[in-house]
Amino acid sequence: MQSALIVGKKICSSLLLRNWVRPLSAASDKLTNVEVNDKTGFAKLTMNRPPVNGLNLDLLRDLHQSIQDIEKNKCRGLILTSASNTIFSAGLDIMEMYKPDQERLKQFWTALQDVWLALYGSAVPTAAAINGHSPAGGCLLAASCEYRVMLPKYTIGLNETQLGIVAPKWFMSTFRNVLPRRIAEQALTQGKMFTSDEALKIGLVDELAATKEEALLKCEKFFASFAKTDPIARYLTKKQLRHNDIKELLDEKVQDVENFVLFVNQPSVQKGLGLYLESLKKKAK
Ligand SMILES: CCCC/C=C\CC(=O)SCCNC(=O)CCNC(=O)[C@H](O)C(C)(C)COP(=O)(O)OP(=O)(O)OC[C@H]1O[C@@H](n2cnc3c(N)ncnc32)[C@H](O)[C@@H]1OP(=O)(O)O
């Protein structure tokens, strides 16, 4: 597993150290990094897959493991952020879907489902410090959290229809959990990418922050707002509110993988993905 976990001393003493500390891998291997603040118990989970934090199978598996570790060790909050200065996450790595190996394609989609189930259903309070662009799968991760703070002049949204792709039901439920239904419907059908200011206005993000440090502090302030609540009552309330969305995917998990595989393998979808990749590469030149 390619992630590192750094734990502060005070937290360690109240945690099962044996399960908590995973061996550090060489710096160049790390795709996520977890740091736990020893005073607050808040965990910062940083995605680190340059250049754009494209969500490939390895990053997704790493994210899943890190979320599970944070949960197991009863951290008091999870902040998801990015090591990049300009990109939170470019969403799914299109290379995983273009001319795919069929077995890996199934594993890839299953890994995405697992990350979503772990993050959306997390018992630990969650927040995203969105320090860069956050299209598609990047937006899904941020919207799965309970609170979002974004830096100015970036974009966020579920742009799937612009790529000729239909977002699955659980992407849409995640959006609907954050946005009023009518706005969610318009945004999803248009595949609209919102600027930071627009995202704040419609409620897709909760606050803006001038710097990443400020964004992290605002996320921590959100966690501090639960200081007077019972953590179990808090979690059970969240669980009930999100229950139907989670159950819907759990009931159809295998079918959902099959639908995805069938969809991605359609010649018209492959053609569209190929053209989109080409346009991204041309833009980079
Ligand atoms: C049934 C299926 C449902 C689910 C379907 C989809 C969900 C998804 O998440 S699909 C992915 C959607 N993502 C996007 O549309 C974002 C595309 N990327 C961008 O808009 C820009 O790259 C971005 C704004 C994120 C960053 O811009 P820049 O900083 O200017 O970087 P570059 O554009 O130059 O990109 C650098 C490098 O990365 C490659 N890249 C970017 N995004 C992806 C991606 N999602 N997958 C794979 N590769 C990606 C880009 O081609 C460049 O590559 P090189 O030219 O080889 O350097």
Automatic annotation (TrEMBL):
It comes from the Eukaryota. Pfam families: ECH_1. The keyword Lipid metabolism applies. Keywords: Acetylation, Fatty acid metabolism, Isomerase, Lipid metabolism, Mitochondrion, Transit peptide. GO terms for biological process: fatty acid beta-oxidation. InterPro entries: ClpP/crotonase-like_dom_sf, Enoyl-CoA_hydra/iso. It catalyses: (3Z)-octenoyl-CoA = (2E)-octenoyl-CoA; (3Z)-decenoyl-CoA = (2E)-decenoyl-CoA; (3Z)-dodecenoyl-CoA = (2E)-dodecenoyl-CoA; (2E)-tetradecenoyl-CoA = (3Z)-tetradecenoyl-CoA. One of its GO terms (cellular component) is mitochondrial matrix. It is found in: Mitochondrion matrix. Signal peptide: none annotated. Pathway: Lipid metabolism; fatty acid beta-oxidation. GO terms for molecular function: delta(3)-delta(2)-enoyl-CoA isomerase activity. Key enzyme of fatty acid beta-oxidation. Able to isomerize both 3-cis (3Z) and 3-trans (3E) double bonds into the 2-trans (2E) form in a range of enoyl-CoA species, with a preference for (3Z)-enoyl-CoAs over (3E)-enoyl-CoAs. The catalytic efficiency of this enzyme is not affected by the fatty acyl chain length. Homotrimer. This is Enoyl-CoA delta isomerase 1, mitochondrial. It comes from Glossina fuscipes. The gene is LOC119633894.
